[in-house]
Design goal:
The protein is an alpha/beta fold. The protein has one domain: Rossmann fold (3-Layer(aba) Sandwich). The protein contains 9 helices and 5 strands. It has a 5-stranded parallel beta sheet with strand order 2-3-1-4-5, sandwiched between helices. Helix 4 (99-109) crosses helix 8 (160-176). The longest helix has 25 residues, at 64-88. The protein binds thymidine-5'-diphosphate.
Length: 207
């Protein structure tokens, strides 16, 4: 059986990632293509527990290295228990965030370095995305757009400087993986962004 396609979605806070993933889901449903939608941190129960631990505000003193290792641990479980079996069944896997998030947030913004992130994420070598959709919107633009009160709070919580660095990190990751990662300009309407993503998925033979 042909291995399923692996598609990941990346972007800074407030880029409209959740909304666009819903649109992609609709695309798969309309075309009756078998798929599963999952997210990181998260996926199987063990990884969801690690997600709760990572996102718990009581753990805000976690060091960068501890955080990076827990993200990697959650990912290793997700890959073995969920992503690989689905791909092997021939199902397309859509994943909200993946290793590029660790590269941008922990590797670049929190200063651990991309090599360190690659080293602790060896499990991800077994599941390299066929295509990664990077929703390209600067944190300034996201903040100006204030996509809902929750996003605004989140942006304010970690500070604009941090989000700037995450964005810079992403741009570097995009440059280093120019064939795999497609940058999608998200400065227009959500319908325009949706059409851009659909075109890329078509071009790459995903839908
Ligand atoms: P989530 O609520 O899923 O936010 P979003 O809608 O922005 O995807 O929270 C995920 C958070 O985890 C987000 O702030 C990015 C962060 N993260 C990392 O820092 N490293 C990682 O490897 C992953 C997967 C996520």
């Amino acid at each position: 059986m042909e291995r399923g396609k692996f598609v990941t979605f990346e972007g800074c806070e407030g880029a409209g990632k959740s909304r666009q993933i819903q649109f992609v889901k609709e695309l798969f449903e309309e075309r009756k293509i078998p798929y599963v939608l999952t997210r990181e941190p998260g996926g199987p129960a063990i990884s969801e527990k690690l997600r709760a631990f990572l996102l718990d505000v009581e753990n805000r003193d976690m060091t960068a290295e501890c955080e990076a290792l827990v993200y990697a641990a959650a990912r290793a479980q997700h890959i073995e228990q969920f992503i690989l079996p689905a791909l092997e069944r021939g199902t397309t896997v859509l994943c909200d965030r993946y290793i590029d998030s660790s590269m941008a947030y922990q590797g670049y913004a929190r200063g651990l370095g991309m090599d360190y992130i690659a080293a602790i994420n060896r499990a991800a070598e077994k599941a390299v995305p066929d295509v990664t959709i990077f929703l390209d919107l600067s944190p300034e633009a996201a903040f100006a757009r204030k996509g809902g009160a929750d996003k605004k709070d989140r942006l304010e919580l970690s500070g604009m400087e941090f989000h700037r660095k995450v964005y810079e990190g992403y741009l570097r990751v995009c440059e280093a993986n120019a064939r795999r990662i497609v940058k999608i300009d998200c400065s227009g309407t959500k319908e325009q962004t949706r059409a851009r993503i659909a075109a890329v998925l078509k071009e790459r033979g995903i839908v």
